[in-house]
Amino acid sequence: MSSQPIVPGVSDRGPATPSTPAAAQGGDRPVDLLVQPPVGEAADTAVAPATAPAYRSPNQRAWARFKRNRLGYVSLWAFIAMLVFATLAELVSNDRPLVARYAGQWFFPVFSNPPETALGGDFATPTDWKDPFIAAQFDQPGNWRLTTLNPHSAVSTDYFSKEPDPAPPGARNWLGTDSQGRDMLARLLYGFRVSIWFALALTAVGTLLGVLAGALQGYFGGKLDLTLQRVIEVWGAVPELYLLIIFASIFEPSLLLLLILLSLWGWMGLSDYVRAEFLRNRALDYVKAARALGLSNRQIIFRHVLPNSLTPVITFLPFRMSAAILSLTSLDFLGLGVPPTVPSLGELLNQGKANLDAWWIIVPTFALLVVTMLLLTFIGDALRDAFDTRKS
C-alpha cells in the first residue's frame, strides 16, 4: 500500500499526469483546486454582473400601472382626440371656407369674412357662402375655394334648401338638420366643445376650493375644523336648483354665471376626502420631523402633506367632469343653462323631445353623451387602480 497522502478532489488511481499543476511544476506544492480556464475562453465564460433595476418615482410607477389598464389607457387617448377635434371645430366644420381666391385676390374667410361686394355681389353685408350666386362665382375659371370637412357651422342656416326642417340625413347634411335648419353634425361638435370645456373649468375651480377647504380643516383641526364643518352642513342644505332658477330670472343666462353658481356647491364633496387625508397624514412621522426641523405650516402643507394627499383628488377628477357635463346638459334641457345662441347638448335633447319623429336629433346626441360618460368612467377606474399602492 502506498504511503502517498490523498488530496481531496484528486483521483488516487494513478500517478499525476503532466496536465495537473503539481506534476507540471514537479514540486511538492499543494494542488490548486481552482482550475483556471484558458485565456482564450475567459471572455466567453465570464458572467456579466447583474445590474440593479432603474429607480422609478411613485408617479412613474402609477403611470406604468395606468398603462397596464388597456381600456383606461385607450379611453384616455380617445377622449384627448375628441377634445382636440372639438377645440378646432372652426377648422373642421364651418360654412366659411378656409381660403378662397377670387379675381386674383386671396381671402381667408374663416378668420375674416369679406363682404359680398368683394366677390361680385351688390351688398356690403358679410358673404353668405351658401348663396347660389356666390357658388356660381367660384365656378368660374381661376376662382376657387377650400372648404372645411363639413361645410356648415353651428348657427348657419341654408335658406336655399328645398327640404322642410328638420331634414333627415343626406348628402348636404350628413346627420340631418334640427328644427331650425341648422346642421346636426356641427351642432354636436360645437355643443360638445362647450360642454367639455365648461366641465374642465368647473372641475378646476371646484377642485381648487375643495382642496383648500379640506386642507385647512384636516391640518389645523380643532375649532377651525368644527366651524367649517358646520358651515358646510348649512351651505349644503341650500336648494341649489331653486337658487339657479332665481338667478336665471334676474340675470341674463351666461356660461360665466353658471360657472360661478355651480362652483359654490361643487367643492363640498371633494373637501371631505381631502380633509380625511390631511387628518391621517398630519400624524405621521415625516410631518413631525418637518415640524422639528422648524418648517412653517405653509411649507409642511404644500411640500409634504398635500403631495401625499392628492390620490382621492386625482381619482375623482373624471367623475367630477362627468357630473359637470350632466349638470350643464340638464340645465340646458330645462332652459336654465346657456343662452339660446350657444350650441348645447341639452338644447338638442329638448329639440329631440319636441320632435320625436326626427330620430336624427335625439339619437346622436344621446349616443355622444353615453360615449363621453363611458370614456370618463373607464379613465376614472384606471386612475383608481393606478394610485392603489397595493397593486404591483
TrEMBL record:
<feature type="region of interest" description="Disordered">
    <location>
        <begin position="1"/>
        <end position="32"/>
    </location>
</feature>
<protein>
    <submittedName>
        <fullName>ABC transporter permease</fullName>
    </submittedName>
</protein>
<dbReference type="InterPro" id="IPR000515">
    <property type="entry name" value="MetI-like"/>
</dbReference>
<dbReference type="InterPro" id="IPR025966">
    <property type="entry name" value="OppC_N"/>
</dbReference>
<feature type="transmembrane region" description="Helical">
    <location>
        <begin position="194"/>
        <end position="221"/>
    </location>
</feature>
<feature type="transmembrane region" description="Helical">
    <location>
        <begin position="358"/>
        <end position="383"/>
    </location>
</feature>
<comment type="similarity">
    <text>Belongs to the binding-protein-dependent transport system permease family.</text>
</comment>
<dbReference type="InterPro" id="IPR035906">
    <property type="entry name" value="MetI-like_sf"/>
</dbReference>
<keyword id="KW-0812">Transmembrane</keyword>
<feature type="domain" description="ABC transmembrane type-1">
    <location>
        <begin position="192"/>
        <end position="380"/>
    </location>
</feature>
<dbReference type="Pfam" id="PF00528">
    <property type="entry name" value="BPD_transp_1"/>
</dbReference>
<keyword id="KW-0472">Membrane</keyword>
<feature type="transmembrane region" description="Helical">
    <location>
        <begin position="71"/>
        <end position="92"/>
    </location>
</feature>
<dbReference type="GO" id="GO:0042884">
    <property type="term" value="P:microcin transport"/>
</dbReference>
<dbReference type="Pfam" id="PF12911">
    <property type="entry name" value="OppC_N"/>
</dbReference>
<dbReference type="GO" id="GO:0005886">
    <property type="term" value="C:plasma membrane"/>
</dbReference>
<keyword id="KW-1133">Transmembrane helix</keyword>
<dbReference type="GO" id="GO:0055085">
    <property type="term" value="P:transmembrane transport"/>
</dbReference>
<keyword id="KW-0813">Transport</keyword>
<feature type="transmembrane region" description="Helical">
    <location>
        <begin position="241"/>
        <end position="265"/>
    </location>
</feature>
<feature type="transmembrane region" description="Helical">
    <location>
        <begin position="313"/>
        <end position="338"/>
    </location>
</feature>
